[in-house]
């Protein structure tokens, strides 16, 4: 309690001291003529009046964050006209008036009722006025004054971010700027050192340092290596009061990452790599992998591989797998264990991107020796040639040697080889091969005109290892021999006009030969020696594989001879040459004066005196139509069928079948045999209709006919009805079967027409009209009695 009283007294003294200081430093004042004043004489004896100041103040100060038990006195207002009798009332208005600042309306003392924070509000503008207490009449005009909140060091420095992240290249020089951190202090920077900040590093020495005034972090050690340590955690402190004792501070964390530079060359972990590959491997197959380690990352760690020396440079190649940073050794050519068993390669690994700043750390490459051993493989036989082409003459005798294929075992064992022909390529079996020596022979005569080339495949297998098999293509060309004589190129049929002139050409012919061109043209055309002096026609060889036929005389007549057959001999140019005789058919025709064909029929002269050609065609057409009509009439007569049911007009009859044994009714299932109902006429062989063969056979559907011993009458009748309805070969007819006894327990009673005819029953049978068409006959019979009675 005593300490609080002392603090309050000290603050009050401080406030009064500030107030006195304000008065002595030229305060702002509001002045007006006061009731109190004194007189001064002027130079001319004039009395001058000088007004006194009505308000005397400048500004008030109050310390922030005051936490005493009583309101703090900010200052006191007093008017010159205040005589102390209590008639003057002081009024305070403005920012915070009545809430934060209160005034004693009698004494003019101003107190702060709440704790003030300069960081929230640095000053308040208030207005004071003196009024008459009784009338509230203003005695002085209102005047403004300022209450400033005096700052104390109550806010520590704060950084803009709680955590910072920065990067700096590894091996940077000392003093390289990394990042600048900035802190701010909410205290008044114009008052004292409360907002004067100083930066220092708490964690991160000796690698980094910070500038005390700017907060710039710099490297402090040279040659920091990312591969040794990549990430550093630095703690920076900002302290106010210029860093002196008692100042407040704030800290932030900075994570600094060293970025990579290419300062490390690639290095193979071993000096020699041993690899092996089978001689059966195909080009492009992977043999093995090598890898040089580079601690750098990203593009700085990219490594490219190459073969720079060795006896296998032409047989192997190396590529770079950039995903795994490995060198992939691949086979470039086929291998032969029997020829060469080992290879040696010198492989180099070099960085793709080299930083000139660190060229002194080079060379950025490394070499390694790769030794490759070729493994022996059980290889299939190998033919001496990739393919064979042979020739054989057509029509050669069976057993003629076509050619020979040869294969060997490339392995050291040099096993024996057996040969065979793939019969899928020689379906007609024209050839056979000797399994021991590979000689191919013919077993059939070959015809070049049918197949000019035979493409077969020959297998070679090891005798003791049947799975080792090799196939080679063999093409056999059938060499042509002159075995086909030339013939007409087409089926020629020429015509010559009756009025043709001598030596007139009327057709040009050519020839065709199935043999090769060497045994075909040039063709020679001639007439047989026996008709070389033919009186009607002559032949001229055009020496271009064609010949022209000419008329030797004039005056041809169709009535004398309308057809001539001219034999022509054609010879080819083969060795030896072949020839054939071909017959040219020449018809004599009627032509007009320009040589256009009119008619080639000899009957035309006979018909000129009678009917024209159009009339003859019309007559023939009529005859054909009449014949067609007669044929159709006869056909329809034969196909006309007689009616299935023979009856005279209006001769309506019904087939009434009488049985001596009547049905037993609904309760009697043993008094009769259902078999007697199954078409008794058919059993006796009597068929009451004509047996006409149906146009198509009717096949009753299975499952519709009940068993012969069935006693279900309803199912039997329904089945028979369905069969009759679906039988297209049966004519429609009704079969009425009458039963005189229905059984003793029948609810329906007897329906027998015989029994009802002998009784005097007065039953009404009109309901039969509603039973449908099947009971129409009964309805007409029993309904006729009523009609007869009405008529009588």
TrEMBL record:
Residues 79-159, 160-268, 269-383, 384-488, 488-605 form the Cadherin domain. The keyword Nucleotidyltransferase does not apply. Keywords: Calcium, Cell adhesion, Cell membrane, Cleavage on pair of basic residues, Glycoprotein, Membrane, Metal-binding, Repeat, Signal, Transmembrane, Transmembrane helix. It comes from the Eukaryota. Coiled coil: none annotated. One of its GO terms (biological process) is cell migration. The keyword 4Fe-4S does not apply. GO terms for molecular function: beta-catenin binding; cadherin binding; calcium ion binding. It is found in: Cell membrane. The chain crosses the membrane at residues 615-636. GO terms for cellular component: adherens junction; catenin complex. Residues 1-22 form the signal peptide. It is a single-pass type I membrane protein. SUPFAM superfamilies: Cadherin-like. Cadherins are calcium-dependent cell adhesion proteins. This is Cadherin-11. It comes from Pipra filicauda.
